[in-house]
Amino acid sequence: MDRDELFMKQAIALAEQAAAHGNEPFGAVLVKDGEAVYTNENQIYSATDPTFHAEAGLIRRFCGETGITDLSEYTLYSSCEPCFMCSGALVWVRLGRLVYGAGNSDLAALLNEEGCNCSKLVFDHSPFRPEVTSGVLREESLAVLRAYFAAHAKG
To answer: Which key words are in the record (predicted)?
Structure first.
């Protein structure tokens, strides 16, 4: 198993934990120099904060706890492609690399909605663009999303 798959497995496990904790199934892992330095799961319901997505919450907490606001030497692993809000946050912290499993279009298809490549749209119109690797363990991520959204409405 390569490094991307290893950290993506962690992000997917966090997504499963988020669902077990009463939240939507999204997880994120922040990595530097081959080591996971911070993790977070979606907490929109348990924190009563609709902006507490896995990625935005991770950035908020990591930066607040460490004082580090330039993540150009970090990689963020996300179980699903970050939304517009989270992608914007990744621009503001100058994330070096983003790796995600399922895409926003995959999620939208599960919800019978029209999706888009959110992160690409944000990054293409921003002065700073992280390197992006998509589709890592996509099917595993989709299985978690499919199981959750078969029984729950989005938002």
So the answer is: Metal-binding, Zinc
